[in-house]
UniProtKB/TrEMBL annotation:
It comes from Phytohabitans houttuyneae. One of its GO terms (molecular function) is lyase activity. The keyword Cytoplasm does not apply. Substrate binds at R70, E136. This is CoA ester lyase.
Length: 307
């Protein structure tokens, strides 16, 4: 089935254990909400969190936001029950399931088959619920190409920096911050690796959380780095980070306007009227098929952002 490309500049984490925060999330201007059953929820609170999440999805009125539930990872005893309870309880009101700490394509295939079973049992459209795969350790990164291509349900490949940094023994406790002892950007390889795998399979690439929730400037700095590479959005943990994410992952107005001009010029020079005028020019700028493609990317992001 055709999967719609969703806008995901800001992906808001909401702990499934907090009825109050689940309620509040409905009114916040994030492109996506993900209701968390994993690390934001203590082990003993998980059964109740599943019920809260099902109720919150069924209450509806998420105002067009993409609705995602993050289940527990496949090394725990909770994953199957998370998927079955949430999809049986609210499958028709759910857009994607997020699987954390994915280590191989088989993890994604397990989720794909399990979703198919529950969809069939309930008479839901098979394949509609998408998958978001979090890359959070060395195995996940090494296998990221196969993970991104493991199922047509996969919509996003997500960098999980906190777990990732812990799993490879990175010497920093501050997610996203540059490390003074290292004369470069320690995240560059990881982000590019994820981006290449995502793009090879036509998926979105999403950056993970920035934990210093009061430091919006710090959030912006880190977000700008992945946005510059081509990432589609970033997690937000606090309402204060949402506007910054929506802004950073939308094109700058000047770039958007310029992209639309390039597309107009290209259209004119390849039309009946302009087709014999020679090289495609916009002022002093020469435009070819490749620059048209670059403009298409910026224009599509801008239009999706309502520019
Ligand atoms: C997110 O899950 C992270 O570990 O950073
Ligand atoms: Mg994590």
């Amino acid at each position: 089935m055709e999967r719609a490309a969703r806008i995901r500049r800001s992906c808001l984490a909401v702990p499934g254990s907090s009825v109050k925060m689940l309620e509040k999330a409905r009114g916040l201007p994030a492109d996506q909400v993900f209701l968390d059953l994993e690390d934001a929820v203590a082990p003993l609170a998980k059964p109740d969190a599943r019920k809260n999440v099902v109720a919150a999805l069924n209450e509806g009125d998420w105002g067009g936001r993409t609705r995602v539930v993050r289940v527990n990872d496949l090394t725990t005893p909770w994953t199957y029950r998370d998927v079955v309870e949430v999809v049986e309880g609210a499958g028709a009101s759910l857009d994607c399931v997020m699987l954390p700490k994915v280590q191989s394509a088989s993890h994604v295939q397990w989720l794909d088959l399990t979703l198919t079973q529950v969809e069939k049992a309930l008479g839901l459209e098979v394949g509609r619920i998408g998958i978001e795969a979090q890359i959070e350790n060395a195995a996940g990164l090494v296998n990221v190409d196969a993970i991104a291509g493991a199922s047509p349900r996969v919509e996003t490949v997500i960098f999980g920096p906190a777990d990732f940094m812990a799993s490879v023994n990175m010497r920093s406790l501050v997610v996203g911050a540059l490390i003074p002892e290292y004369p470069g950007d320690p995240y560059h390889y990881i982000l590019m690796r994820i981006l290449m795998a995502a793009r090879m399979h036509d998926k979105q690439a999403i950056d993970g959380p920035f934990l210093q929730i009061r430091d919006v400037d710090g959030f912006r700095e880190v977000a700008k780095r992945s946005a510059a590479l081509g990432f589609d959005g970033k997690w937000v943990l606090h309402p204060g980070q949402i506007d910054a994410a929506n802004e950073v992952y939308s094109p700058a107005q000047a770039d958007y306007d310029h992209a639309e001009l390039i597309l107009d010029a290209y259209e004119f020079y390849t039309s009946e009227a302009g087709g014999r005028l020679g090289a495609v020019m916009l002022g002093d700028e020469m435009i070819d098929e490749a620059s048209r493609k670059m403009a298409l990317v910026i224009a599509a992001k801008g239009r999706a952002a309502g520019m």
